[in-house]
Structure formats: structure tokens, C-alpha cells
Amino acid sequence: MHLFYQPDSKIFELDEEEARHSSKVLRLGSGDIIYVTNGKGTLQKCVLNVQGRKAGYEVLESQQIERRPFAVNMVIAPTRKAERNEWMVEKMTELGVERIDFVITEHTNTDTINRVVNLTRLNRIAAAAMKQSQQHYLPIITVGNKYEAFVRDVKDSVKLIAYVPDHNRVEHVFSKVKKGQGTTLLIGPEGDFSEKEVSLAFDHGFSTVSLGPTRLRTETAAVAGCHAINLAQNIL
């Protein structure tokens, strides 16, 4: 199934990049069947109409795909390298994630935040990953929220923070997931969460979880946590 992204359901034409991909990469032409999603659950079966560099389409069928009965929401302190933030957005989108919120913590390098977290580029990467993995909902991505304010406002019933105090045994995130219930997982920066931040999370109902016996980079921890939550929901 050739899936394309057009956020405006009232426009029956692929954007320039999508049109070029359809003709130059996929070798599609007029009369071929494609599928178009708006990233909000709408899936349209369409017939392609190519005129020069433009690729319009006529909608044959349309349906609304229901959301999953659970949500996976990842809250992450961004790394200091843009490519690592982009990689984790791509992989978490492929695995299945409803929200990705990049937050500013005490150990976040705020001087480089605008350079390493480009929201426009991250949304473009997420859209490509959504199409590649044959999904129909684009994750919501936010940048620049203050950790303290964000933690106070989390509404999910399962609230977890990836933090293992020295010499303490902490359950793996897999064991904390509850079937059909939304989960928010906090992933700290390279210098980890401060004691104040951990205490604040506890005060607002978060539980500590482990992501395994080894120390992981921020981007690896985010992908591992996202995968564990999705896997737990699918086998519980």
C-alpha cells in the first residue's frame, strides 16, 4: 500500500515532495491507486492524476481509523546532538507513540536547545516514519516545556520516571504497564534528573522504573522505553 500524507483533507493534491516521491521513486502514474492520510486517523483510497510535476488525486473511499485503546506518551530531555533527537523521534514513531514532549530540565543545555531540537524538521521526520510504518496518526511533538510545569499537568493513569537510585532495585518498566491505560514515561538528560526533579515527580504520582541492567544513552533509553510499553500492551 502506497501511503501518502496530506494534512489538509480539503486539498486533493500531494505536496511537491510527496509528488516527486510518487513519480521518481515509486514510479506511479495517472490511474494508479494510492492511500492518503491526514495524520489524524482519516484514511482515503484515491486514484492518482499526474500532470507534469503535480500529483492530484480523486478520493474513492474514506474511513476513520480508530485510535488505539491506550496512549504512549514520552517526555524527554533532549540530547546535545540534533541527529540523536531526530533518530529517536523516527524510531518511536515507527513503534507507536501518541506524544513526544521535549522538556527543559536542570541539566539540559538551554544554549543549544533551538539548534538541536528543530520542531519543523522533527514533524517532517515523524510524518515520514508514520507513512513508512503504515500508521494513520501523527504524534504530537512539543518543544521547550519546563519540566516542573509539565510534570504537574500529566493526566495519564500510569506515570513513570526512568530513574534507578544507587544500590536500589527498581522494577522494569514492562511490569508497570496496565492494559488499555495511558502511560507517560520520563527520560532524563545526559546528566540524569536532579534530586529535586525526582522528588517533584514522586510528589505528582510518578513511580521509578528501570530500562534494564545497562546504562543507556538518552535516545536509546527513549526508544527502549517506548518499545517496552508497546510490547507490554500487546501481550498483557
Automatic annotation (TrEMBL):
Domain Ribosomal RNA small subunit methyltransferase E methyltransferase: start-end pairs: 68-229
Function (record text): Specifically methylates the N3 position of the uracil ring of uridine 1498 (m3U1498) in 16S rRNA. Acts on the fully assembled 30S ribosomal subunit.
GO molecular function: rRNA (uridine-N3-)-methyltransferase activity
EC number(s) stated in the UniProt entry for this protein: 2.1.1.193
Name assigned to this protein: Ribosomal RNA small subunit methyltransferase E
Enzyme type, top EC level: transferase
Matches recorded under SUPFAM superfamilies: alpha/beta knot, PUA domain-like
GO CC, any one term: cytoplasm
One annotated GO biological process: rRNA base methylation
InterPro entries per the UniProt record, alphabetical: Alpha/beta_knot_MTases, PUA-like_sf, RsmE, RsmE_MTase_dom, tRNA_m1G_MTases_N
Catalytic activity: uridine(1498) in 16S rRNA + S-adenosyl-L-methionine = N(3)-methyluridine(1498) in 16S rRNA + S-adenosyl-L-homocysteine + H(+)
Subcellular localization, as worded in the UniProt entry: Cytoplasm
